Amino acid sequence: MVNEFPQVVTIAGTDSGGGAGVMADLKTMQARHVFGTAVVVAVTAQNTLGVQDFMALPTKLIDEQFTSLVTDLNIRACKTGMLADASHVHCVVENLKRVDFGPLTVDPVMIAKGGAALLAADAIQTVRDELVPLATVITPNLPEAAALTGLTIEDDQAMMAAGHALQELGAKNVIIKGGHEADPQTANDFVLLADGSSFWLSAPRVDTVRTHGTGDTLSACITAELAKGAAMATAIQTGKAYVAAAIQQTIQVGHGHGPLNHWV
Ligand code: PLP
């Protein structure tokens, strides 16, 4: 067979403003030289000022999108983002079990920076029980890691404990993003790999409101690198470096939490 171009899928919600969700994922995948596809779970009416409204699609249409992909394309890696509520988390889990889309990056999206709930509170348990065990790598921020593990995370020790707790819940590799930490100088992420080894990643904190879609971008970049055959630690390091560059070389779009620059 001719060498096929690496194909990946994001299973997530859209952002009409183009900065987060499926749109950020596809831009990141394009920049990382993989072919991006999408299973749309929810549609948001959104801009840099916030999420004005959203609606999840009928689960039948989500099933059909999975079928469309699996009957034609050769998806090598996948990621999940906004999944809206428990019935949609369950629907995505059932579809992921029926197809083989390669390594799964789970970005357990819960609340947008503007405060909008992108996952119903009662769906956190479904994510923990059904989706986390399928994760090749999970990429929570501090509030998401706390919600999934039930731990209070206020220092490095607690971040490490939360990483181990997420592995016990079934995620093979974990990156906990410390961007919500108090440290004004650096953003420190804790990485725990499947073999039990761990390391910290740090990047200088950039004083900007233009960070809309950073979580999506990180998880999409990791997915792209895994599809190209990168080792997990390398994929995570590349993701962190890509996000740091995309935040630093900011572009002026919109009046609120502006999007990242994907031409870095
Ligand atoms: N909208 C969608 C569809 C998302 O998936 C996400 C994050 O994953 C966001 C909005 C939130 O983006 P942020 O919190 O970076 O503003």
UniProtKB/TrEMBL annotation:
Stored Pfam families: Phos_pyr_kin
Keyword Kinase: yes
Highest taxon of the lineage: Bacteria
Catalyzed reactions per annotation: 4-amino-5-hydroxymethyl-2-methylpyrimidine + ATP = 4-amino-2-methyl-5-(phosphooxymethyl)pyrimidine + ADP + H(+); 4-amino-2-methyl-5-(phosphooxymethyl)pyrimidine + ATP = 4-amino-2-methyl-5-(diphosphooxymethyl)pyrimidine + ADP
Keyword tags: Kinase, Thiamine biosynthesis, Transferase
CDD domains noted in UniProt: HMPP_kinase
Domain Pyridoxamine kinase/Phosphomethylpyrimidine kinase: 15-261
Keyword Transport set for record: no
Listed pathway(s): Cofactor biosynthesis; thiamine diphosphate biosynthesis; 4-amino-2-methyl-5-diphosphomethylpyrimidine from 5-amino-1-(5-phospho-D-ribosyl)imidazole: step 3/3; Cofactor biosynthesis; thiamine diphosphate biosynthesis; 4-amino-2-methyl-5-diphosphomethylpyrimidine from 5-amino-1-(5-phospho-D-ribosyl)imidazole: step 2/3
E.C. no: 2.7.1.49, 2.7.4.7
Top class in the EC scheme: transferase
GO molecular function, a single term: phosphomethylpyrimidine kinase activity
PANTHER family: HYDROXYMETHYLPYRIMIDINE_PHOSPHOMETHYLPYRIMIDINE KINASE THI20-RELATED, PHOSPHOMETHYLPYRIMIDINE KINASE
Family: Belongs to the ThiD family.
Protein name in the entry: Hydroxymethylpyrimidine/phosphomethylpyrimidine kinase
Source species: Lactiplantibacillus daowaiensis
Native organism taxonomy: Bacteria, Bacillati, Bacillota, Bacilli, Lactobacillales
